Amino acid sequence: MAATTTKHSLLAGVDIGGTKIHTLIVDDQYRILASARKKTKSEGGFRAVMERVVETIDEAAKIAGIPLTALAAIGVGAPSPIREDGVAVHAPNMGWKEVPLVKTLEHLLRVPVVAENDCNVGTLGEFHLGAGKGARSLIGLFVGTGLGGGIVWNGEMIRGENRMAAEVGHMIVQVGGRRCGCGHQGCLEAYVSKTGMGRKFAYEIIHQGRSSILTKLTPNDYSNIKSSILLEAYQKKDPLVVETLHEAMTYLGIGIANLITLLGPERIVLGGGVLEAFGKTFLPLIRKAAEEATHPPASFSDTKILLASLGDDAVALGAAVYARESLAQKK
Amino acid sequence: MAATTTKHSLLAGVDIGGTKIHTLIVDDQYRILASARKKTKSEGGFRAVMERVVETIDEAAKIAGIPLTALAAIGVGAPSPIREDGVAVHAPNMGWKEVPLVKTLEHLLRVPVVAENDCNVGTLGEFHLGAGKGARSLIGLFVGTGLGGGIVWNGEMIRGENRMAAEVGHMIVQVGGRRCGCGHQGCLEAYVSKTGMGRKFAYEIIHQGRSSILTKLTPNDYSNIKSSILLEAYQKKDPLVVETLHEAMTYLGIGIANLITLLGPERIVLGGGVLEAFGKTFLPLIRKAAEEATHPPASFSDTKILLASLGDDAVALGAAVYARESLAQKK
Fold first, then answer.
1. Do B124 and B318 meet the contact criterion of CB atoms below 8 Å apart?
2. What distance in Å separates the CA atoms of residue B81 and residue A297, rounded to the nearest whole number?
3. Strand pairing partners for A147?
4. pTM (2 decimals)?
5. Alpha helices of chain B — where are they, by DSSP H?
6. How far is the alpha carbon of A86 from chain B, nearest alpha carbon, in Å?
7. A278 near A234, Cβ under 8 Å?
8. pLDDT tens-place string over residues A123-171
9. Is omega for the bond preceding B92 within 30 degrees of 0, making it cis?
10. Counting beta carbons within 10 angstroms of the beta carbon of residue B69, is it exposed (0 to 12), middle (13 to 18) or buried (19 or more)?
11. B contacts of A168 (beta carbons < 8 Å)
């Protein structure tokens, strides 16, 4: 069914994450021709990260057997709001503030580059190629170190006036509640993220003297526990971990309810490391919490709540989709 | 500048509220040619309310000196979600459940009728003709007995999959918090509405024995105090009223922050009886609370927070706009 273009139109999609850079080269049907990964090592500074991005693209191009000039464009997802001029405004995980992401990469690569917030393009990827395929509207929620999100409405990302919107994790659901990394209190992310859960672990273990298997599994730092370790502790029925995860997934359900109450999207897709590890286990609990908090109750059943299906590729694929959309708009 | 159509195209806009029905007849520039009002008297039942709607339209048409057949369409705003088939799904204030609003009025009037949730068309009215004029995106918040809202994005109402979305008042901002009329806990409306404030008044006065001028001004019922009485008590610096209104406006600011964090609209417009009475007084407090809770902080300044400008006419005018848009879509 798909129309094949006479001229082959290749794209690269890059996911710059806190721990790794992940690059894909795709064809005009978004079939993956090659992939390459490197550690981000953000402590080396912005310029070093950019060079490592270039290395992954070079490597992937080599695997695909193409020169960089065969790429029509490169799309980048990064953990920052991205301004219209391609500047990454603020990426605390990376230590970036107002860095010229697009300009730097275009200078190094000599290929058109577009960039967008990672959760926005991750949602766009799921919308076009994953669990959102065929929907008119989709909200993506990605639970990992933080809680990121994206909103796609009638096929378009909602980014707000300053391209900083869809910050789903910083919706306040508990006025005066748990302190969030952003400085506010009661953000959804303060309950539904590894950082948020980590605050509770630290409080309960260190300040309240509560015992937990976490003191053995990850003795020194509760601030960003690996999902695999959380899973191990959960499977061993550690009471603190069970209680904290249940609380987190209940809050996630309430956050989802708010999004249905406000926007009534056709689908909500849940991804990120925590949900890749726990999604199947907790989906019934999440749905129940969402159903109990949605208004009006009758509207709940019109939104499908699904697990993301692109896994680790969502951001890189979505970045490639965004690159193609940007090219199409320029024509 | 405005193009005048050769054929005069008149519309009626009707606002069916809990206490009054308000009808306007407007020309193709939305100039008001006539208006008529009647008490709703919803206790008489759905059919009686429909007949009173017809009476206001007849009366307004008589004032305008036109026959009903001169109306191209009638737009109705009602305090209920309205299904695609014109059924008003659920209007607790009116005692309506699944009533055939559009069908009944078309049968009685023999003119095309469209209907939509009152806060949605109120927002549409402000978007086209009021404080939202010229914006791309607008969220309206109307504080009265309840807290209603509407979202207009790229000129279109966001109504969600089941046309029940934009229920801004039922976004949960305080998990486990104050009970809301909808049955949930911690909805924004439970803090930011006359019903919500009434619960606090009743609790403080009746259960806590706290003294307040309200016991003299409105001795028997705190559940839906007139805005003018609230204003009087506030101007007399009644501590309970001052404290409760400050709390309500702070919560309103936090709700606004959530909407900016999620959607980053160009403008947010505040209307309804409470804000008509207190808007000018509290706008700085509302803005401050919103600014303190928006994420990222830099995105706050890109959304303008304004008072609504159409007052009591917002819903009827918005309903007329909606009627014209519906006609245009049919062509």
1. yes
2. 12
3. A143
4. 0.95
5. 46-64, 101-109, 118-129, 194-202, 214-217, 227-235, 239-263, 273-293, 314-330
6. 17
7. yes
8. 999 999 999 999 999 999 999 999 999 999 999 999 998 888 999 999 9
9. no
10. exposed
11. 262
Cite the DSSP H helix spans in B91-206. Answer: 101-109, 118-129, 194-202
Nearest to A172 among B137, B162, B254 (CB): B254
Classify B174 in phi/psi space as left (phi over 0), alpha (psi -120 to 50) or beta: beta
Q: How far is CA B4 from CA A288, B29, B61, in A?
A: 55, 8, 21
DSSP summary character for residue A165:
-
How near does any CA of chain B get to the CA of A123, in Å? 14
For A235-257, give the DSSP string: HTT-HHHHHHHHHHHHHHHHHHH
A246-268 pLDDT, tens digit each: 999 999 999 999 999 999 999 99
Q: Is A21 within 8 Å of A52 (Cβ atoms)? A: yes
Q: Do B158 and A153 touch (CB under 8 A)?
A: yes
| Tokens (6 digits) for B47 | 């059919």
What's the residue count for chain A? 331
- Which candidate in B97, B154, B167, B304 is best for mutational testing of the A interface (most A CBs within 10 A)? B167
Subunit contact B264:A170, Cβ cutoff 8 A? no
Give B111-123 pLDDT, tens digit per residue: 999 999 999 999 9
Separation of alpha carbons B303 and B28, rounded Å: 31
B91 touches chain A (CB under 8 A): no
Burial of B9 (0-12, 13-18, 19+ CB in 10 A): middle
Candidates B167, B259, B298; nearest CB to A261: B167
Helix B118-129 vs helix B314-330: crossing angle, to nearest 10: 90
C-alpha pair distances (Å), B286 with each of A53, A168, B189, B194, B280 = 44, 21, 15, 17, 10
Going by the DSSP 8-state scheme, the letter that residue B256 receives in this structure is H
**Which of A90, A175, A302 faces B162 most closely, judged by CB atoms?**
A302
Of B246, B199, B248, the C-alpha closest to B225 is: B199
CB contact under 8 A, A299 and B165: yes
User: Cis omega (within 30 of 0) on the bond before A296?
Assistant: yes
Residues 292-331 of A with CB under 8 A from B: 292-293, 295-296, 298-299, 302-303
Phi and psi (nearest 5°) for B80? -160, 150
* Spatial CA neighbour of A73 closest among A40, A37, A25, A121: A25
Q: What is the DSSP string of B1-18?
A: -PPPPSS--EEEEEEE-S
Average pLDDT, chain B: 94
Measured CA to CA, the distance from residue A8 to residue A49 in angstroms comes to 30
User: Quick check: B226 and B234 in contact, CB under 8 A?
Assistant: no
Residue A141: alpha-carbon gap to chain centroid: 7
The nearest alpha carbon in chain A to B135 belongs to: A161
Q: CB–CB of B160/A151 below 8 Å? A: no
* Interface contact A293-B184, CB threshold 8 A: yes
Give the relative orientation of helices A239-263 and B239-263 as an angle to the nearest 10 degrees. Answer: 90
Query: Over the stretch B235-269, which tens digit does the pLDDT of each residue have?
Result: 999 999 999 999 999 999 999 999 999 999 999 99
Is residue A120 within a helix (H) or strand (E), and if so which, with residue range? Answer: helix A118-129
Count, residues in chain B: 331
Q: How far apart are CA A130 and CA A270, in angstroms?
A: 11
Q: How far is CA B5 from CA A183, B8, B13, B28, in A?
A: 56, 6, 20, 8
